[in-house]
Design goal:
The chain contains four helices and ten strands. It is of the alpha+beta class. It has one domain (about 30-170): CheA-289, Domain 4 (OB fold (Dihydrolipoamide Acetyltransferase, E2P)). The chain is elongated and about 90 Å long. The termini are far apart.
Length: about 170
């Protein structure tokens, strides 16, 4: 009986060692979490090249409302977009916490005015959920998913689709 017990214990120990030795490498994705008029949103970290404080934004006459103007940043002139109107979010004032996320998607590089930058986080892919079906249609077409952050639902914005809309409106002369 002791031999049988020792054999079972040895087998169990071997299995535990095997289970402990298994490492799961889960892909993580970086997000830059921001607010737009008190709504929590996120950009994929790979699309945000830097975050700038809001200095002087020089308006350009005759441009659409969403194009606030240009700013000088690290030796370059960057356009600054206010995507709230594109997303159907009410406008908000520029404050000391406002920032410009310098973003790059495809061939388009532009600054996006945000009310705050809350955090930069790495999350596993399994933490990304499909967007809610009840989301406003104006915003839904620009959302790729949702994540939970600090017990809040945060929508993940698709910069490629936002920039595509901006370019289409420019082509139409909006």
């Amino acid at each position: 009986m002791d031999d049988k017990r020792e054999s079972m214990e040895k087998t169990l120990e071997e299995r535990e060692e095997l289970e402990l030795g298994v490492e799961f490498e889960e892909e993580s994705i970086q997000f830059v979490i921001v607010t737009l008029a008190e709504q929590w949103c996120a950009f994929y970290g790979s699309a945000v090249t830097s975050i700038a404080t809001v200095e002087t934004i020089t308006p350009i006459p005759g441009t659409p409302d969403y194009l606030l103007g240009v700013m000088y940043y690290q030796g370059r002139v960057e356009s600054v977009l206010d995507i709230k109107s594109i997303l159907g979010i009410r406008d908000s004032a520029i404050t000391g916490k406002s920032r410009v996320a310098i973003t790059l998607s495809g061939e388009v590089q532009s600054g996006i005015l945000v009310d705050t930058v809350e955090d930069v986080v790495d999350l596993p892919e399994r933490k990304i959920f499909a967007p809610l079906h009840t989301m406003e249609q104006a915003k839904k077409e620009f959302v790729t998913g949702e994540i939970e952050y600090r017990e809040r639902n945060v929508v993940i914005l698709d910069l490629a689709k936002i920039f595509e809309r901006v370019l289409k409106q420019e082509d139409r002369g909006a």
